[in-house]
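Re: How this chain folds, sequence and tokenised backbone to follow

Filed under: protein folding, tokenised backbone structure, sequence and structure records.

Contents: The amino acid chain and a row of whole-number tokens, matched residue for residue.

Body of memo: The sequence and its backbone structure tokens, given next.
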Amino acid sequence: MSLSRRPRRLRTTPAMRRLVREVRPQAAQLVLPLFVHEDLDVPRPITSLPGVDQIPLSGVRPAVEAAIEAGLGGVMLFAIPSVRDAEGTAACEADGILNLAIAEAVAAAGDRIVVMADLCLDEFTDHGHCGVLDAHGNVHNDATVLVYQRMALAQARAGAHVLGLSGMMDGQVVAIRDALDDEGFTDVSLLAYAAKYASAFYGPFREAVDSQLQGDRRTYQMDPANRREGSLEAALDEAEGADIVMVKPALPYLDVVADVAAQSDVPVAVYHVSGEYAQIEAAAANGWIDRRASHLEALTSMVRAGADIVVTYAAIELAAWLKEDA
């Protein structure tokens, strides 16, 4: 055959494929979620997230050191408090478990890794919603944002480098930015969960945080059918002062990731969520797919779509695999 182009020429050897590779994920792009449980003395496995544990407060420093050793870019802290109430009071207390965990992580990290903290009330409310409720049982947007401001200040005082605004309340970014700046926390960055969808892929996460949720979050998280709205939400958050915008989940929404990456002047993050991770783990455990290859392919797909930062439960292993393959 006489062909002017034979694309297979660039796939002939591992060395050739490495040379022409378009996307090269790095460990420094990865962020590891950590779940800190107030009532634990030793780690407790999360059954629906194989290889992931809830850890005690004493486990924060070793976990941060392991992330640094792996070359990760950051850790994202979540917490499970002993006591929950309708207002999520523990989220704003200086000695609340999340704020104590932030302080531990920052003390261990120094300037070697970025410490991020989840800023949302779902882990702290006894109804499991991301905000406070009105008299009719609906999440009250503006009242919730006021609580978020107090929570943000508590996290900033604990030393967090980045606050992860995951509540999907309208106006939360500008309100929190104003509150931080008024208190002098101008160097604390905001990661806005800009396009967070009401996804079925969050199931294992709810075990991880012992979620009390009844019902769903469809009145504040986005409809999975909406692509343009993802761009709108990201643009709004960027205009309000977000330093990083996020699309969550990741793999089912790569079209949204590509849209947001194309329009944004700030870094774009994705969250490879619990259900996505668990799918790979379950299929690999049954021998149906190659675990390592599947996690690496998922990561490559997210970066190829435009993600600069990837939050993933496989961060430690991915970093090791990337090093081996370099």
In short: The mean pLDDT is 96. Residues 95 and 154 are 9 Å apart (CA to CA).
